[in-house]
Write a structure and sequence with these properties.
This protein is α+β, with helices and mostly antiparallel strands. It has nine helices and eleven strands.
Length: 310
């Protein structure tokens, strides 16, 4: 029975091993400990794997480092938005989120540290956050939504069934300062514009909602304190279409084959004509020389074998 459990224990230990190495540049690790998820349901929706906190010290100083690892870069980005700090001490790298307090390693030491990160994953981040208008956006108010839990936390005006997460929905939420108060706006992204049109009709049934569709996205705010400001913010949500035209080139046709044959025949005719002109020209040149009395070298004359003479 023990031999069956051993591989599982080894694999479990690999998954929950230390994130930080014993040393980052001149700094040595101490007081390292794993960290549990403070909001289990939300962390699970973001794809949380594990976290670790450790102290690093050297002769020239010390700092405290915290790392959170997620399944992918999108989950790390969503988590980063949820804990953004005004001092910029929190940042993401691939599917990791880091926080350094009291100091930070040199860039070269960090780059070397990144190369040894366990279960590191990097992929393209969603472009949806770039569609969030920046004008009057309250700093660090952005929140990325991946499912019902984050929707309830950050944009409860929309129900999970209305958002339709089974379609692969993701959303970006931000808060705006208007002359009459703070306004929350969400942009929901869907696989196709047709699905977004159906969702747009459903969102319009929400009492007090101001809704706009832009391509596969639906932007809305619910019961805004300033309807005019809401219209101005929604007007800034514009979908940029990047169209790539791939034209299929058909195979050769009968007409193309006929053109190829005619080209070959024409080229052969030109070569034959050039050979004929060259031969006639050379013969004419020799005749003219003989008329002028040129006999040529002895070996240039034709050798005749008189085979019939006795």
């Amino acid at each position: 029975m023990l031999w069956r459990l051993t591989p599982l224990l080894i694999f479990s230990g690999f998954l929950h091993g230390a994130i930080f190495p014993d040393q980052i540049g001149p700094y040595h690790k101490s007081a390292a400990k794993p960290m549990a998820a403070t909001d289990g349901a939300l962390y699970q929706e973001y794809g949380f794997q594990e976290a670790e906190k450790a102290d690093f010290g050297a002769q020239n100083g010390h700092f405290q480092a915290t790392a959170w690892r997620f399944n992918d870069s999108t989950g790390a980005m969503a988590f980063l938005q949820s804990i953004q700090s005004s001092d910029g001490s929190v940042f993401s790298h691939g599917n990791y989120v880091f926080q350094f307090l009291g100091g930070q390693p040199a860039k070269d030491d960090l780059d070397a540290f990144y190369l040894d990160l366990p279960l590191f994953e990097t992929s393209a981040l969603p472009v949806l956050p770039t569609y969030l208008p920046r004008q009057d956006l309250i700093r660090n108010s952005e929140r990325y939504i991946l499912g019902p839990i984050s929707l309830e936390r950050y944009f409860p005006q929309v129900s999970p069934s209305m958002a339709a997460f089974h379609l692969g929905t993701e959303a970006q939420v931000g808060k705006y300062m208007t002359p009459k108060g703070v306004m929350a706006m969400g942009i929901f992204n869907y696989p196709t514009p047709a699905i977004a049109m159906d969702r747009y009709k459903d969102f319009q049934t929400i009492q007090g909602a101001v809704v706009k569709r832009a391509g596969p996205m639906v932007a809305l705010t619910v019961q805004p304190p300033d309807p005019d400001a809401a219209e101005r913010v929604l007007a800034q949500v514009v979908y940029n279409v990047n169209l790539t035209w791939n034209e299929t080139i058909g195979g050769p046709t009968v007409k193309d084959s006929a053109k190829m044959v005619l080209t070959i025949v024409g080229l052969a005719g030109i070569i034959l004509l050039m050979c004929l002109i060259a031969g006639v020209g050379f013969g004419t040149f020799r005749v003219v020389l003989r008329k002028l009395g040129w006999q040529g070298p002895e070996n240039d004359r034709m050798i005749v074998l008189h085979l019939g003479d006795k």
